[in-house]
Specification:
By secondary structure, the protein is an all-alpha fold. Helices cover about 50% and strands about 0% of the residues.
């Protein structure tokens, strides 16, 4: 890797990025969440990658205007350098962020529908109008810089192995491993599991790629084994779910198409944190960058582990070893079980958000308020309150146990690995 370009000094003549409110970042995050929900092929791993690049674009478009923060160029894998602003020239950092987000979303979601493309255009125009300076030269210079950042980052993204992942969620060429204890189709009948090669995607942070892979318990159907006990717990819970646990299972389910996916839920919580804190543009952009990187790397490593061990889902194990007629509360996703993607990504996001906002940051998660009642499961979508990000991540993990999709082992491993991933994101040199 070549060294990054020298860090520029803060440009002069205008406001720093800390002096703008976070509205530009908040509105673009909201639009990306909507686009993810309504664009074909944006399964959780694919979506996590998009949040990662969009978060980095937001941050890099304004970091020359943040007094005490530095670029991630030279720190993220394969990102050797980025365009630099003109020295001693004035920039409007709100317009730089605005242009960068518009450009990166157009690139990351080329297959999205006409209404979403129109929404990108209209939001870009509205924010350009709302935040423009009297000096049109400053406006143009700022927007041009944001576009250059987005274009450079998109070119970099093409080299990570995940480009256009939305086109190959279920590759027909994949040969499904068979054998005792290995994944097999569940109740949805999907014969090819989702994104079996996603673990090969380049992580943003090298230290994450270097993490040792955790091993699951050895497979056994012996009723006295630790593995049997794991799946028996899932089966037992399915027989005595209380309403609160059903509410939690449905709230965190975050199925693609119906929602903005599990990593989108973490990105939504990041947005809620920005709103709750009334964060500046600088703090908001760092929030989305850290969260995006954390959930993207979490899904890559989680998928690497899933397809190394190809662990059987509770749906199949319970029917094989405990109750042939068992029906879980929530249908199993079409990919191996160990470890839990929910637990891994929500934990990694919680760690980076805690680093920014503190251990005792209370917030209300209203991510799904307004959704129609789940009549089948007798659940309404009511906002949930938390006293910390880690508390929310624990509930996200628990939700998969309540849904009878994951064992405790899946969740505990995911939470532990997610903390390591988030810590490595925090360990980047964010501060000058």
């Amino acid at each position: 890797m070549q060294p990054a370009d020298p860090e520029p000094s803060l440009t002069t003549g205008g406001k720093s990025a800390d002096q703008y409110n976070g509205d530009v970042a908040i509105q673009w995050a909201a639009l990306q969440l909507k686009i993810t929900k309504t664009t074909p092929g944006f399964t959780p791993p694919v979506a996590s990658r998009a949040y990662g690049y969009a978060g980095v674009a937001m941050y890099e478009a304004i970091v020359p205007g943040i007094i005490n923060r530095k670029s991630l160029a030279g720190q993220l894998q394969g990102l050797t350098s980025l365009p630099q602003p003109e020295q001693s020239k004035t920039y409007n950092w709100a317009l730089s962020a605005n242009a960068a987000e518009a450009a990166i979303l157009r690139s990351l979601y080329p297959n999205t529908g006409t209404p979403n493309k129109a929404s990108i255009d209209s939001l870009e125009t509205a924010l350009q109008t709302a935040y423009k300076d009297a000096d049109e030269t400053v406006n143009q210079r700022s927007a041009d810089f944001g576009k250059k950042i987005a274009n450079a980052l998109f070119e970099w993204s093409k080299t990570d192995g995940g480009d256009a992942g939305y086109t190959r969620n279920f590759p027909a060429s994949y040969i499904v491993p068979t054998g005792a204890g290995l994944w097999q189709p569940t109740e949805n009948g999907q014969k090819i599991p989702m994104l079996p090669y996603w673990g090969q995607v380049r992580t943003f942070v090298k230290a994450n790629s270097d993490l040792p892979m955790p091993k699951p318990l050895p497979y056994s159907t012996d009723s006295k084994s630790a593995t049997f006990a794991q799946y028996l717990d899932v089966y037992t819970k399915s027989k005595n779910l209380i309403q609160t646990e059903k509410d939690i299972a449905v709230w965190w389910a975050d199925n693609p198409v119906e929602t903005f996916t599990p990593p989108g839920h973490s990105y939504s919580i990041a947005r809620i944190a920005v709103l709750t804190d009334k964060a500046s543009l600088a703090k908001a952009a760092e929030t989305f960058a850290r969260t995006g990187i954390a959930v993207a790397d979490a899904f890559t490593l989680c998928w690497r582990c899933k397809y190394t061990y190809n662990n059987i889902r509770p749906y199949n194990y319970v029917r094989l070893a405990i109750d042939p007629a068992w029906i879980p509360f929530w249908p199993a996703p079409p990919f191996p079980g160990y470890p839990s993607g929910h637990a891994t990504q929500s934990s990694s996001a919680a760690i980076v958000l805690t680093a920014i906002y503190g251990e005792n940051f209370a917030f209300i998660d209203n991510s799904h308020v307004g959704r129609a009642r789940d009549v089948l499961r007798n659940v309404d979508f009511k906002a949930r309150s938390f006293t910390s990000f880690l508390q929310a991540s624990q509930e996200s993990a628990d939700s998969r146990f309540y849904g009878n999709i994951h064992t405790h082992q899946d969740n505990e491993t995911g939470l532990a690995e997610g903390k390591k991933i988030g810590a490595n994101v925090n360990a980047l040199a964010w501060q000058k």
